[in-house]
Amino acid sequence: MGARNAAVAAADQWADPDGVRRPAGEVHGWHPGRNETVCWLSLSRSRLTRFPHVSWADVQPESGRHADEVQAVCRRCRAGLGGRRDERGWSRTNPRP
After folding, report:
1. What is the full per-residue pLDDT of the chain (97 aa) written as tens digits?
2. Which positions ≥6 away from 30 have C-beta within 8 Å?
C-alpha cells in the first residue's frame, strides 16, 4: 500500500463550482477499505471525512489540483507515504574523524 492508491481523509470539506466535494482543513492519507489513516488516527473518532475520489497527490499544496482549501498536511502521513523521497536526501555535513 503505497502513495499510488492512497486517498484522502480531511477535517472539513468544500464544494467546487461543479458541486463535487473536495477536502479542506487538515488532510490525512487514507487507504480505502481501512478505518484509519496512515498515521493511525481512527476516522470515526477523529471525525474525519473520507474522500475516495481524491488522490493523495492531488492535495499537496505545492502541486495538487484540489489543494485550494487545504490548510495543513499531516506530517506523519506525508512521511508514511514517501513525502521526502523526491525533495532532498540525507547527507552528513560534518562527519566525525
Report:
1. 666 789 999 999 999 999 999 999 999 999 999 999 999 999 999 999 999 999 998 999 887 788 889 999 999 999 898 766 555 666 778 877 6
2. 6, 7, 8, 9, 36, 37, 38, 43, 48, 50
